Amino acid sequence: MNQHLQNIFNVIQQDESITAEQKNAIIKSLKDADKELEITAFKLDRTEKVKKTTAILLEETIDELEQKRKAIEETNAALQKLLDDLHATQAQLIQSEKMASLGELTAGIAHEIQNPLNFVNNFSDVSTELVDEMNEEIDKGNLEDAKQIAQDLKQNLEKINHHGKRAGDIVKGMLQHSRSSSGVKEPTDINALADEYLRLAYHGLRAKDKSFNATMKTDFDESIGIINVIPQDMGRVILNLITNAFYAASLPPPAGGFKDPDYVHSPTVWVTTKKEGNTVLISVRDNGPGISQKILDKIFQPFFTTKPTGQGTGLGLSLSYDIVKAHGGELKVVTKEGEGTEFIVLI
Ligand SMILES: Nc1ncnc2c1ncn2[C@@H]1O[C@H](COP(=O)(O)OP(=O)(O)O)[C@@H](O)[C@H]1O
Ligand SMILES: [Mg+2]
To answer: Which residues contact 201 (CB under 8 A, 6 or more apart)?
Structure first.
């Protein structure tokens, strides 16, 4: 029994002024109180234990949370790295698209340079013979004839010079294409730019695939004159559109064939320029299979391509769109399945 209750118990036991009946009642109360005290002490002890357990559990939970926070932090860092890698890969892809288009051009460029070189070689051969003839005439004393030959020689040298410059211009154009864009608008002959890229793309494709054949048709509006554009960038847009057009024109007809059963398909690409008020239109049209409504709203998305792996990067139209936008212009598409597609640059 609790010591204090025991003391009271002892006092009561010895007190003779209290009747036995009263004593019994008091002692019963004392024993009840003692029991209650014991129960309370037990409960207190249990509460104490629960408190300790809770504290331990709480500590564990805090530890767990801390670990989770660290894991999230690590995941975030990994995600950031992935994102950085993705950006780097995108930049590389854009560069490789540029290099791929340069690759397509190389054969065309070689072909274009071959023409002026042939002129230079032929004219210099002829000129060597003319010098021999001139010497003969001088020996014979025919100074009038010798002078006439000298006149022809001068004309030949001018032609050699002209074609040499032409080859130089082609090389310059090629270097400009491979170099990163100057980002500066320059007075540019857009007709000459379109014509140049059309021929380079055509000869490039022919060199790659001997069976490739297509008709090119041009209609340039001479009233356009010189306009201010970033020539490398605009050249890339035109090249992208023309390469796409040649590719599409050479494709087989869509399921169901071309509308007219008597129609014989002959791949054709039209490049047209036109001045309308303050706007210049550059149109690249083909008589390929057209673009189905299902994918029409996807073609300008980066990496969207329907070409077999290794043949398309899906970047041509997206880059072209950005370039035209940066010029404050618009890039539109008009297409009809089974008839063809027209891309129009408005600047
Ligand atoms: N002239 C066209 N005719 C039909 N489809 C075209 C034409 N031009 C582009 N497309 C479609 O748009 C897609 C995206 O073109 P682009 O961005 O140049 O990438 P890529 O040429 O590498 O596929 C092409 O894969 C093709 O499905
Ligand atoms: Mg393309």
So the answer is: 104, 105, 108, 239, 242, 243, 246
Q: Is 104 in the pocket of ligand 1 (CB under 6 A)?
A: no
Sequential DSSP letters for 176-190: HHHSPP----EEEEH
Cβ neighbours, 10 Å, residue 141: 9
Contact 333, 342 (CB under 8 A): yes
How much of the chain is in helix, strand and coil states, percent to nearest 5?
Answer: 65, 15, 20
The pLDDT assigned to 179 comes to 62
CATH for 185-347 (3.30.300.330, 3.40.50.2000, 3.40.640.10, 3.30.565.10): 3.30.565.10
- Tokens (6 digits) for 3: 């010591």
Question: Which residue type does 44 have?
Answer: L
How many Cα atoms are found within 13 Å in the side-chain-facing hemisphere of 17?
1
Query: Which amino acid is it at 60?
Result: E
Joined together, the tokens standing for residue 64 give: 């767990």
Tell me the ligand closest to 101's alpha carbon: 2
Indicate the average pLDDT of the chain. 89
CA 284 to CA 317: how far, in whole Å?
Answer: 13
Does residue 259 surpass a pLDDT of 70?
no
Could you tell me if the CB of 338 is within 6 A of ligand 1? no
pTM: 0.65
The domain locations on the chain are 185-347
